[in-house]
Amino acid sequence: MDTLVVGAGVVGLAIGRALALRGHGVIVAESEGAFGTGVSSRSSEVIHGGMYYPTGSLRARHCVEGRRLLYDFCERHGVPHRACGKLIVAVSEEERAGIEAIHARGLANGVEGLRLLEAGEARRLEPNLACVAALESPATGIVDSHALMLSLLGAVEDAGGALALRTPIESARREGGSWRVRFGGDSPGTLDVDAIVNAAGLGAQSVAHGIEGYPPERVPRQVLAKGRYFGCTGKPAFTRLIYPAPVEGGLGIHLTLDLAGRVRFGPDVAWVETPDYAVEPEMAAMFEAAIRRYWPALPDGRLTPDYAGIRPKLSGPGEPAADFLVDGPAEHRMPGLVQLFGIESPGLTSALSLAEDVARRLEG
Question: Which of 74, 285, 312, 332 is positioned for an S-S bond with 79, CB 3.0–4.6 A?
Answer without folding.
Answer: 74
